[in-house]
Amino acid sequence: MPVSPEGARGGALRAPLASAVWALVVLVAGLAFTAELARREWVDARARAEAMQQSLADAAQARVVEPLASAALALRAMQTVFLSNDDVDGTLFAQYHDNLHTRQQVPGHVATAFARRTPDAAGAPRSSYRYQLVAPLQDNEALLGLDIATQPENLAALERARDADTPSLSAPFPLLQFDGAGSGAAQGVVVRLPVYSRGAVPASEAERREREIGALAVSLRLEPMLRHALQGRILEYMHVEIRDLDAAPGQEMVFATDPDPLAGSAVQVRRAEFGGRRWELRLWPHGAVPGEGRTHLIVAAGGLISVLLALLLLSQATTHRRALDLGREMAARFGESEARFRVLNELLPALVLLADARSGRIAYANQAAREHLGPVVDAPLATLFADPALGGRAMAEAGRGGAWASQEAVIVGRDGGVFWASASLARVEVNGAPYLLMVATDTTEQRELTERLRYQAAHDSLTELCNRREFERRLQVALDVRARRADAAPFALLYIDLDQFKLINDVSGHTAGDQLLVQLVHAMRQHLRPGDVLARLGGDEFGLLAFDVDVALAHVLAERLRRCIEGVMFVWQGRTYAVSASIGMVLVDHDGCTLKDLLAWADSACYQAKESGRNRVCAYREDEDASRRRTEMEWANRLRWALEQDRLLLDYQEIVPLAPASEPGTHIELLLRLREEDGTVVLPGAFLPAAERYGLMPAVDRWVIRTALAHFADLHPCGDVLRTCAINLSGASIEDEGLADFILDTIDEFAVPAERICLEITETVAVRNLLRVVRVIERLRRAGCRIALDDFGAGMSSFGYLKNLPVDLIKIDGSFVRDLGSDPMSRAIVNAVAQIGHQRGLKVVAEWVDGEHTLAVLRELRVDYGQGFVLHRPQRVLFQRPRDARRVA
């Protein structure tokens, strides 16, 4: 049927109308869905924001006190200096201040000062406290001579600190050093601590008032101190106000940020207390709530998607117009990008200059060049170099087309100042004319950082002395100079080891130990000659290189240092410590010695000083004892390497029943071996004495215990049905408080039945510290372990020990068993040990069984077990054998 023109026109009208209706429906539905998502996200964001605000308030409460506590700790360290030496001068005061790094560790630090007390004069209302020592002195000169008694806030804090010997905090007040800087910039506080006369810390208030000689103070600017403490998320999201609740009316405000509170937000209130004052913190959020960005993103994205879907239905009729609009938009963006590129080229951080190659004058300088160099256009390029000859050579080389790139040069900057730069010059052509293009980067900060890192790599951070690496380098240089020059003067190496330093760390903590080291270094420096090199080699070990000395002068210098250290009285938190040092000395007056030799000789001499009673100087002597100690040191180092490289080995030797009625099963004892780097196997007699002397036995014993239990089923061909595995424990391990815990934890970790572990303790060790050994033994036996008393008879034997020691087995020392067939006394002793052991219900084991005749006598004496080459030769444990050799024996 034909369609009338009116119908066609109506259809044409209905199609756009239908598209518009559907577009509206899609838009409304999309916006409704977006609104619901945004609402839910907003609720979650508010909950997260409230939790975050509470967390930030808690953090602010703790962090505002941290710089005050750091200042108090620095004052406490300075107080100990006065307790040991109450006649501190300005130089020494500045040295201690610099060493504590107070300016770096306490934000807002202005000055550390000492005010000496002048007692009440006749007619004077109170004592005066005038500042005598100030560090740093620069910009703080106004404090010298200032009487604290004229400042009521400071005086009140001083008196509180004096009577209680606790840090005291003043009320906020304008600092004298910032007079005229504005009230906010000048506001500060002072943390105070009293100073008492030399001696122990006074215990009562009356004694404190009697021995008071002055007061220490650290002044702090409130604004930088608190901004640093609160920096980060606290100030990013929260407005903060801090008020001093103890301040006078109108002076309560301590700190406040510019308020821009978020409407309807709750105020978080916290209270911080320090030094007798109370600060109230009030915090509330400002700006946008964290997380609202996601809400906005949901709204924006959902609304955009909804609009785009709606517009998609209407886009067919406007495609061409939209394409044209898009093209115009892209062209506009391209123009903007080009402009940005031009701006970026001008704002490059590198210095870019263009000079006429013919005249050498500068034609163009970018912004960075103008800022560093000033108005240099039309100036000769060569004049930018502090060394004009270098500039001339660079221009000549670049002008010939050569490469002059990445060269370090000193450049003359604005107002005549100089800086280091990495510069490059190249010849270029611009519009057909020759030019020289110079690109330079300021490397001054990088060079300063490099120098600072180089210094830190060569120096100890605590004492500012050379570290071990730098000390050994300088020692090697001295040896090289001596090897090249026949007329080189002799020099001495001193190895200084503090006595009982670990006691101070254990009792008073590492902060006390660090402060003691600082005081000792300051004291020792006063006795050094120009050119002497003092270094910190380890925790409490120092080294000294003294040049151009003979034996007598070296010994005088060593004694001077020893007496200096002995004279230091260290006081920390009410405790007074006496300090001494053992010093080993080596005089280098001939060629042929190496760095390793010198360090070993010095360590050996120091060890001799300690063995001789400590607090003395010993010179190295090449004798039998010194050779033995050097050999032991070498073995100790080789044993350390073996532990690190897992080159320790285990052999097992079977313990064989001698009586037919003995309990069934296989019993073994583990024997330690060391494999050298070349594969040679070393028996324990060569390295165990060194391990005992140098404190390595606890580490060795723990390695054996853990390794044995971790591979218990792979020790012996019988596998996990092994009846007993015996492990030797050294005296040093028995004295280790954590040994029993380690053994029991390892047993639990690897699920080895405790009754299959036998721990052997020598008679000498057991007698040396009977009470401690008994406690350890009883704890291990309660867990199920068996205990053997090894080498019985080799020491100061007493059968009374068998009555008091809770052991399960006695192992008769092999020296009696070896002579059993030829020495009637040995037979009598073995017989007595066997009878008494059986009387106590103990098993008896004979060691060093090396012949059939000995076996017959042992059986006759009813000894339970035997161990020796005639019964079984030691073999490598199964898990350390080559794979093709791990077969059942």
TrEMBL record:
Residues 632-888 form the EAL domain. It is found in: Membrane. One of its GO terms (cellular component) is membrane. Residues 489-622 form the GGDEF domain. The chain crosses the membrane at residues 20-38, 297-314. Its main location: membrane. InterPro entries: Biofilm_reg_signaling, CHASE_dom, CHASE_sf, EAL_dom, EAL_sf, GGDEF_dom, Nucleotide_cyclase, PAS. Coiled coil: none annotated. The keyword 4Fe-4S does not apply. GO terms for molecular function: catalytic activity. The keyword DNA damage does not apply. It holds the Pfam family CHASE. Residues 133-231 form the CHASE domain. Residues 405-455 form the PAC domain. GO terms for biological process: signal transduction. This is Diguanylate cyclase.
